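Here is the promised in-class demo. Please do not try to memorize the tokens; focus on the logic of going from shape to residues.
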């Protein structure tokens, strides 16, 4: 199959072992792009990740992976040197995707709980135990019966709170670490003449979710950095855009307290009646990597099926 990209084009994906990163690697590989994947996973997790990488080897022209901390400047420089060797004299990075999902999901203050009354009142009306009603609602919610989320058990948060170090680490990991990789590729002359950089944000860039404060700050920092990259690297042929995905079933979402309720609310609000899929995002990144999308630069592009603008609950 003919490639959709110039020969010897490479995609460097930071956080490519699951979720958006893995889906994008699969899409770009299928379309003829060589793949470089940096990820950080425990050895015990590799038994599930290696089969996915093996699938990528079956579709992409080439694949090389590194299981290292992408936030470490020392490891970053080591990987960049190895990438330069891998690309040789002709290979160039066409796509850089920042899909690192390491963030602290803790509250910033003790939670003042407002008791939920709907479940208890309904249970009293039916003459049943309120706790059993909530347990039944939890089970139905897990099976995708979204309408019962208001009578299920409320999310539980740890009695530990974010501090400045948590914020700094999260903002570096999920936001500003993109700069070091961008500058490292650029100074080594590894970007193609028409390179595309992508970061990932969420509706949490504007909406306050409990436990999401540090990640929200990282997303906003990433968006600001994207605008600066688009402006200052643009004259050198580098475009930078941010993808704002809808609520998506990923390992990162599962780590958020109350993610089952977030998913239920998203499905009820989304005009398409479903969550965003990693492949939905991968498809858009692919489209924005084509020659025809060269004039899109410095934007935040929503990929959510209309979830963000919908004021209707099904």
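The designed amino acids, position by position:
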């Amino acid at each position: 199959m003919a490639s959709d990209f110039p020969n010897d084009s490479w995609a460097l994906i930071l956080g490519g072992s699951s979720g958006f990163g893995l889906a994008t690697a699969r899409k770009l590989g299928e379309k003829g792009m060589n793949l470089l994947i940096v990820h950080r996973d425990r050895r015990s997790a590799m038994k599930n990740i290696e089969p996915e990488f093996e699938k990528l080897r079956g579709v992409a022209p080439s694949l090389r992976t590194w299981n290292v901390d992408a936030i470490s400047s020392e490891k970053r420089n080591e990987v960049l040197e190895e990438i330069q060797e891998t690309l040789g004299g002709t290979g160039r990075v066409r796509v850089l995707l920042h899909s690192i999902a390491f963030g602290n999901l803790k509250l910033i203050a003790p939670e003042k709980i407002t008791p939920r009354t709907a479940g208890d009142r309904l249970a009293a009306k039916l003459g049943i135990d309120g706790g059993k009603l909530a347990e039944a609602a939890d089970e139905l919610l897990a099976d995708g019966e979204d309408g019962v989320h208001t009578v299920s058990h409320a999310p539980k948060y740890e009695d530990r709170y974010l501090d400045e170090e948590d914020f700094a680490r999260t903002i570096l990991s999920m936001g500003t670490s993109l700069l070091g990789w961008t500058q490292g590729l650029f100074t080594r002359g590894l970007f193609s003449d028409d390179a595309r950089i992508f970061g990932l944000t969420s509706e949490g860039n504007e909406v306050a979710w409990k436990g999401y404060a540090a990640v929200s700050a990282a997303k906003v920092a990433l968006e600001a950095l994207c605008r600066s990259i688009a402006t200052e690297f643009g004259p050198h042929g580098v475009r930078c855009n941010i993808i704002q995905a809808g609520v998506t079933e990923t390992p990162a979402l599962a780590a958020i307290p109350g993610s089952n309720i977030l998913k239920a609310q998203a499905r009820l609000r989304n005009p398409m009646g479903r969550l965003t899929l990693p492949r939905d995002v991968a498809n858009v990144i692919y489209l924005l990597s084509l020659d025809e999308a060269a004039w899109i630069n410095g934007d935040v592009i929503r990929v959510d099926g209309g979830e963000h603008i919908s004021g209707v609950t099904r």
